[in-house]
Amino acid sequence: MNKNLDKPVLYFGLPGNPLSTVVGTLQFVIPVLWQMSGASVSEQPMPLTIKAKLISDIRKSPGRKDFQRGVLSRDETGHYQVECFSRQQSHRIKQLSRANCFIVLDKDSGNVAAGNDVVVQPFPWLHR
Hints:
About 20% of the residues lie in helices and about 25% in strands. It has about 130 residues and is of the alpha+beta class. The protein has a domain of about 80 residues: MoeA, C-terminal, domain IV (Beta-clip), CATH 2.40.340. The N and C termini lie far apart (about 45 Å).
């Protein structure tokens, strides 16, 4: 009898689209792995979040939290600004190579017009 079969096994079911898998890994899998490693809450890295002025309109339907890809930069006065890609389908892999952040939109939010402030999460591999 194999005693290893009696031990619980952790399984992460991730979506099939590559961009959805990146979001799921960053938002859910990595935090769980930190917790399982025994790291205390204060030892776990928290996602960096920045407020930035939106320079292009965002289309979004209320009902789910969205992590839309964007390009974060600074304007001539040094303030953060972010541009959202017009098409956000999760099969658009090329966008991930051009993006440097997620624009985080709350579940209940709808469309967001240019000029509004939004919460941005720079990709962790760009600021470590």
